[in-house]
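**Sequence with structure:**
===
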Amino acid sequence: MKLIQPAKQILVRRVRATAFIGLACALIGLNAAAQASEPPSSVTQTNSVASAPKSTAVTGAATITSAPAAATNLSQTVTTNPAFILDDTHKLAIGDRLSFRILEDEDEKGYDPREVVNPFVVTDSGDLEVPYIGRVHAEDKTCRQLAGEIKAALEKDYYYHATVVIAVDVMAKSHGRVYLVGAVRLPGPVELPTDEVLTLSKAILRAGSFTDYADKRHVKVTRKDSTGKEDKKTFIVDVGEIFDEGKIETDLVLEPGDLVCVPDRLIRF
C-alpha cells in the first residue's frame, strides 16, 4: 500500500508535466502562428513605405524632366518677347531719350530685366550710339523698325540670338529745325514741335510774319533729298493767297533742315 501511493504521485506528476508541456507547446504554437501571420502585414507596410519613395522618385523625375521644358518655355518667352510690344507709330526725332536693352546680356549677367537702364539720346545727326556696333541712324524710324535693324546687325557678328527692346522715355520738344532768311521780322531757326505739324505759313508767323516789302507770292523752300544725296528739291509757294484767301491746301508741310527764303519785292511802293 505504501508502494502504490508513491507510484500514484509519480503518475500524477507526469500527467501534470505532460499537460504543462502540452500547454506550453500550444502557447508556443499560437505565438508562432501569430508571428507567422504578421509578416504579410509587415511586408505590405514595407512595400507601402518603399513604394512611397518610388512614387516620390517618379514625381521627382517628372519634375526634373519637366524642368527643361520650363526652361525652354522661359527661353521661348525671352525669344518671342510677348511682354514687350515695341511702338510702331512714333517716329524718332533728334533729342528723343530712349531706353535700350539687350535681354540676353541681362540674363547672362544676372540683371533683373525690369531694372532701369541708362537712357540713350538721338544725336543732332539723327544717330543712336549702340553697344557693339556703334552709331545707327535712328531719326524718322519707329522703335520697332530700329530694334529690327539693330537685332539683325547684332546677330550678324555678335549674337546667335538678340532680343532688342527700345522704348521712348522722353520725347524731344522739337524734332529738328527749319531756317528762315530774307524778308521776315525774326530771321533764324524755328523749332519743329513734336505735337503739331509745322507748315510754311505757321513758320513765317513764328518768325514775326513778313516785312513790309516782302514778296509773299514767291516764297522759296529748299529741301535736302530724303535719300541723303546732295540733290535738293525746291518749292515756290504763294503764301499770300494762304493768308489772304485761306487756301490752306497749298500750304507746305516743313521738314527738318528746310531752308525758307522770303525775297523782297522788286518794286516797293
In short: The radius of gyration is 47 Å.
